[in-house]
Amino acid sequence: MKICDLQTHGLEFLQEDGLFPFGTDGVELANFVRGGSRDRAIDLCCGTGIVPVLLAGKKGIPTTGVELRHEAAELARKNAEHNRLPVEIYEMRAQDAPARFGRGRFDIVTCNPPYRKAGTGERSAEDAISMARHETTITAAEAIDAAAGLLSDGGRFYVVHICERMDEIMYLCRERRLTPKELQILRPADGKPPKLFLLMCRAGGGDGLKVLPERTVYGTTADDYPD
């Protein structure tokens, strides 16, 4: 067990070997979210809990986390308890979240889903790292379906994904009445082409997409998702 100082609000994060470590993408996703204590948030595919910990610990947003893998869900609970945060973790499929919690219940849905489609080089569907990287247990369409079902009218969906799938992600969101409203490209510090983007969509929102200036991020996880 390792303890990582998140260097904000006195937060610490527990990590275990064999579980997919949190990366810059999760941190950037949490930082991209706007909200406060009056909002109700849920993080799909929460892994070991970096997004719920940051939403609750930095922004005071009570957050529910949903994670399929038992070991990751257990560590997410430990991280919430370690930091004494208003976070609840449920071990379940994200696809089942609307039925479990009720449709239209949340103001904010976040998701850092697997980036690569199944069949693109994963080692095994049972491997924790492969499951975090590849759509072996949930697809982008299924994650966005769940988000659309969970959001209240006017609620906000925040997602981080790879740039090569940006058009697909936006199309899937629009199909489900999640209108893309804000887009930010994350540029690696080493001068390589951008690989990750952040997107905020609003349930039932009107047309009009605001493109924010590109941001350089250090310690980017782009190299964790090779072509």
Which consecutive residue ranges, at least 5 long each, have pLDDT under 50? 220-227
Structural class: alpha/beta
Give the strand tally.
Answer: 11
Q: SSE order in H/E notation?
A: EEHEHEHEHEHHEHEEEE
Strand content: 25-35%
How far is the N terminus from the C terminus?
A: 31 Å
CA gyration radius, whole angstroms: 16 Å
Helix content: 25-40%
**Shape summary:** globular
Major β-sheet, in short?
Answer: 9 strands, mixed
The chain-level mean pLDDT equals 91
The number of helical runs is 7
Fold and architecture overview:
Helices cover 28% and strands 28% of the residues. It has 227 residues and is α/β, with parallel strands linked by helices. The strands form 2 sheets. Strands 3, 4, 5, 6, 7, 8, 9, 10 and 11 form a 9-stranded mixed sheet that branches. Strands 1-2 form a two-stranded antiparallel sheet. Helix 1 (24-32) packs parallel to helix 2 (50-59).
Strand-helix topology:
Elements (H helix, E strand, L loop, with lengths): L1 E4 L6 E4 L8 H9 L8 E4 L5 H10 L3 E5 L2 H13 L4 E5 L5 H5 L4 E6 L16 H6 L6 H11 E12 L3 H10 L2 E11 L7 E8 L6 E2 L3 E3 L10
Parallel strand pairs: 3-4, 3-6, 4-5, 6-7, 8-10, 8-11
Antiparallel strand pairs: 1-2, 7-9, 8-9
Task: Name the descriptors.
two-stranded antiparallel ribbon; alpha/beta; 9-stranded mixed β-sheet; 11 strands; 227 residues; single chain; disordered C terminus; 7 helices
